[in-house]
Specification:
single chain, 227 residues, mainly alpha, Arc Repressor Mutant, subunit A, Tetracycline Repressor, domain 2, 10 helices, 0% strand, globular
Length: 227
């Protein structure tokens, strides 16, 4: 009878160990993002009061225990949704890289971006409208919100300074007030398109009307900043 050959334990490659360690983290991030995505839809449709944790859990594919584990409570999940909505918008604005463009080009790009972003992300309008009904009570509890806006204001201030230096933008323009004006021209259009379309018998969400208002927003703001 032949002697049995001892089997040596297989060595685990360092890269395999690294993948094994990373995978649970990726799974956790996917689970959290899935919960956030489902929560955005639920909060947008029903508001904080009407939204149901059971529905969010069912739509995300994560059980309620995991939802509470990652976010703590329904209100904390709502705040996380607000931060996620603002964070995605701010990140995309940052990617515009405004300070490396000519001042007027940078401003036009920002105006067009705000219009296109609201058009392509209507859920943002509903989430922000709901929080305004709460008078930003939950947004005030966010620890990340102010930091998100600092870089945007600084970039807009740099664009205005460059425009003044070239003599193509007037002095005395407040960057925050200008940004609110840019956002308002698009936000109000989309948030009130149904009532305005009915009141003026004009289909504001039709492609021709959308194109006209987008151009109108650009002309209003650029006319304002010129000397």
């Amino acid at each position: 009878m032949k002697n049995a050959v001892a089997t040596k334990p297989r060595k685990t490659h360092p890269a395999s160990r690294s993948r094994t360690a990373v995978e649970p983290l990726r799974d956790a991030e996917r689970t959290k993002q899935g919960i956030l995505d489902a929560a955005k839809v639920e909060f947008a449709e029903k508001g904080l009061a009407g939204a149901r944790v059971d529905t969010i859990s069912e739509q995300s594919g994560a059980n309620k225990r995991m939802l509470y584990y990652y976010f703590g409570s329904k209100e904390d999940l709502y705040i996380a949704v607000l931060e996620d909505v603002y964070g995605a918008m701010r990140q995309t604005e940052s990617d515009l890289d405004l300070t490396h463009l000519e001042p007027m080009q940078a401003l036009q790009r920002l105006i067009e971006f705000k219009f296109d972003y609201y058009l392509n992300n209507p859920i943002v309008i509903r989430i922000l409208a709901g929080e305004n009904l709460h008078e930003a009570r939950f947004l005030k509890r966010s620890k990340r919100l102010r930091d998100m806006h600092v870089s945007l204001v600084e970039a807009l201030q740099a664009v205005l300074a460059a425009g003044r230096k070239k003599g193509i933008m007037r002095s005395g323009i407040d960057a925050v007030r200008l940004y609110i004006s840019i956002a308002a021209l698009s936000y109000f259009y989309f948030s009130n398109s149904a009532t305005l379309s009915t009141a003026f018998d004009r289909v504001l969400m039709s492609p021709p009307e959308l194109e006209r208002w987008r151009d109108h927003a650009v002309q209003v703001i650029l006319s304002y900043v010129r000397p």
